[in-house]
Each structure stands twice: as structure tokens, then as C-alpha cells.
Amino acid sequence: MSSLIRPSVSMIVAMAENNVIGRDGDMPWKLSSDLKRFRALTMGKPVLMGRKTFQSIGRALDGRLNIIVTGNPDFSHDDVVIVRTPEEGLEAALRSGADEVMVIGGGSIYARLMPHADRLYVTHVAAEPEGDTHFPHIDLTMWQRISHEPIPRGERDSAATAFVIYERI
To answer: What are the residue boundaries of the DHFR domain, all occurrences included (predicted)?
Structure first.
């Protein structure tokens, strides 16, 4: 990024034990309680995502600046900011005046922006589903776990989880 002042870059993800985060354009689990946490953590902040993630959601997320990364020059949608690279997305978040941008997927966006990330909000899912999209490896020599909250499997959840926050060392 060109500026010395930038928003904090946080990634928020639900990830299986085998780092799977998606299959066929969807998440391979249902986690009602985690969706509530996602909403609370991202509300009022810019959310940065790839086009496929946006299309899997199906709409702009209310109460948040939606920044969509796509190389497709024909892609357009109301109520979102469209950028060509993840780095341009960070610049758009900076221009919005935000102090934190939430990177919400997918796999290639996470991989590209991992070097810029300051914080990871990770829901570790107690499952090993097959999948075609993965979260990058979290190198614990570069990240410190600052909180860990085990979450039992709820009535509307397909697996138990643990919510962990990591900060870059």
C-alpha cells in the first residue's frame, strides 16, 4: 500500500481441521452460531472478498462497505465497490476511513493478503470434509493465539467449533 497509515487488516474464516473452507462454491457445514459471530465482528466495517465469494453470498452484506475483487471487466453490481486486485481493495478500505478491514474470502484472496494481515478470527471446525478451497497454513512462529473459546455443537450446527483469535507477532 502506498500510505504509511492503513487500516488494520483482519481475516475472518471458518476452517476445518484440514484447512478446507469451501466446496463447490459453498461452505461444507452449517454453523448458525458462527454466522451470528461473523455478523457481529464485521458489522460497520469494510468487507473485502473475491467475486466468487460475493456470488455465493448472493447479495451485498448490509451495514458494511462491500469491496469485491474481480479480474472480470464486465462484472458489475449495485451497492458494492469493485476493484481489480486485493491490494486495491485495501486502498478502497483506507479511503473509506475505516480503521479495520475484514477479509472474508475466498481462498485466493486469503492467500494473497495473508502477508498484510494483522489479526485472524478463526472458527476451527471439528471436521475434515472434502473441499476445493483452503485457507493458507497458519505459521505459529508468526502468529500468537490471544484467545481460544471452545464452542459445543449447537442444535443448528453441523459440528463443534473453537473460536480463536490470532495476532501477528
So the answer is: 8-168
Residues 131, 17: contact at Cβ < 8 Å? no
pLDDT in tens, the chain (169 residues): 444 567 899 999 999 999 999 999 999 999 998 999 999 999 999 999 999 999 999 999 999 999 999 999 999 999 999 999 999 999 999 999 999 999 999 999 999 999 999 999 999 999 999 999 999 999 999 999 999 999 999 999 999 999 999 999 9
Domains of the chain: 8-168 (3.40.430.10)
Spatial separation of the C-alpha atoms in residues 99 and 14, rounded to whole Å? 23
Can you name the residues that pair with 151 across neighbouring β-strands? 161
The secondary structure of 19-47, three-state, reads: CEEEECCECCCCEHHHHHHHHHHHCCCCE
pTM: predicted TM-score of the whole model, two decimal places? 0.94
CA distance 45 to 78: 18
CB within 8 Å of 145: residues ≥ 6 apart: 164, 165, 166
List the grid coordinates of 163. Answer: 473460536
